[in-house]
Amino acid sequence: MSTYFEEIIKTSEANCQIFDITEDVEEIIEKSKVKNGIVTVFAIGSTTGITTLEYEPGLIKDLPKLLEKLIPTYQNYNHNETWGDGNGHSHLRSALIKTSLTIPIVSTEMTLGNWQQIVFIDFDNKQRTRRIAVQVMGEM
């Protein structure tokens, strides 16, 4: 079994900005030379998320609207009282969406559906440079 690790770097404007990172992950899998195995994509940060979504303009607008209804930005969160950084909503959104995703690789291809892309979401309230860890494991 072989392993390969690389990071993806994204600069985000924050506030639920969504990035399609599918091609980035595909390129890393190609570099790894793994034919059959798994890829784990992990967002480094407690105010980010990794999930799959059809990356199209409607859903890119709909997901932030849904999260605003479920976990409003401007609400009294105990985290904000503790740290004074106003991003309690960001941590809760991250906990809901999660920061990690594992996808099977079969014959050098991720087993994603036709309309299923890997997305990275920055929930925080300020611009940041973000790191996304990608580890590929399997047979060459």
Q: What would you say about this model in short?
A:
The protein is of the alpha+beta class and 140 residues long. It is 29% helix and 41% strand.
What does this structure look like?
- This protein is of the alpha+beta class and 140 residues long.
- It has a single domain (2-139), classed as Jelly Rolls, CATH 2.60.120.460.
- Helix content is 29%, strand content 41%.
- The protein contains 4 helices and 8 strands.
- The protein has helices spanning 22-32, 57-70, 78-83, 88-97, and strands at residues 2-12, 17-20, 36-44, 48-53, 100-106, 109-110, 117-122, 128-139.
- The strands form 2 sheets. A 5-stranded antiparallel sheet has the order 1-8-3-5-6, covered by helices on one side. A 3-stranded antiparallel sheet has the order 2-7-4, with helices on both faces.
- The chain is elongated and about 50 Å long.
CATH architecture classification = Sandwich
Number of helices: 4
The assigned structural class equals alpha+beta
* Main sheet: strand order: 1-8-3-5-6
Order of helices and strands: EEHEEHHHEEEE
Radius of gyration: 16 Å
Oligomer status:
single chain
**Bulk shape:** elongated
Return the domain count: 1
Distance between the termini: 7 Å
Q: What's the CATH first level?
A: Mainly Beta
Q: Please state the average pLDDT score.
A: 97
CATH homology group:
YjbQ-like
Total number of beta strands: 8
Proportion in β-strands: 35-45%
Contiguous low-pLDDT stretches (5 residues minimum) are none
Q: CATH fold name, please?
A: Jelly Rolls
List keywords for this structure.
140 residues, alpha+beta, Jelly Rolls, five-stranded antiparallel beta sheet, three-stranded antiparallel beta sheet, 4 helices, 29% helix
